[in-house]
C-alpha cells in the first residue's frame, strides 16, 4: 500500500477501538501519528503497521496530564506535519458510587475524556478550518445518552463529548471539515479492567460485547461518509432510540440495575 501522504492522528491507538481504527487508516494508505502512554506498546503497533508501507510516528504522551495535548501539537507542528484526520479515541471510566470514589481519579477522568479532547480538537480544528479541509472523529458512547449510576462521571464526560461534537459540527459544516461522533456500546476492550469494573453485571457477559473491529468499521465508514454520528450495533441503536422517549429518571434506574456489582441486591 503506497502512502497517500495524508496523516491521521489517533489517540489511544495501541488497543481496542483506537487500534482497530489505526489499522483501517493504515489500510487506506494514511500515514499515522499514534499516541499512547507506553512506548513499548507504540513500538509494537508501529512495527506492525509500518510494514504496510506507511510512515508511523509514535508519541508517548499521557493525556491525563494537562500539558500533553499542547505538547503533542507542538511536536507535530515542529515536524511540519499537516494532520488531515484527528481521532480522539483515548478515554477511561471509573467505577463505583460517586460518594465513595476518589475525587482525584474522577478529575483525572474528566481531564482525559474532556479537557485533552477539547484541547486537541481546538489545535487541529483551527488548522483544518484555515485550510478548508479535514476530518475529526470523536469517540463518544451510548453512555452519552443516559445518566449512569455506578459510572456517574464517565457518563457525564461522554454526554459532554456528544454535545460538544454536535455543536462544533454545526459551526464548521460549511467550512470543509467533517466532524463525526462514534457511539459504541459495551465493547470487548480493556475498558472494564481499567475502570475496575469487572464485577459489574454489564461486564460479566462477554458474548454480548461488541467486537472492537466492528465498532471501528462503523466509525470509519461514518467519518468517510461525512455523517454526523453513528451508533454502533443494532441493539445499541434500539437502546438509544428507546432512551430518547424514556424519562431520565427511569433510564437512571435501568442503568443502575445494569451496572451494579453482581450480588449487590443480595448484599442489601
UniProtKB/TrEMBL annotation:
Classification via InterPro entries: NAD(P)-bd_dom_sf, SDR_fam
Keywords from the named record: Oxidoreductase
SUPFAM superfamilies xref list: NAD(P)-binding Rossmann-fold domains
Family: Belongs to the short-chain dehydrogenases/reductases (SDR) family.
Protein name stated in the entry: SDR family oxidoreductase
Phylogenetic placement of the source organism: Bacteria, Pseudomonadati, Bacteroidota, Chitinophagia, Chitinophagales
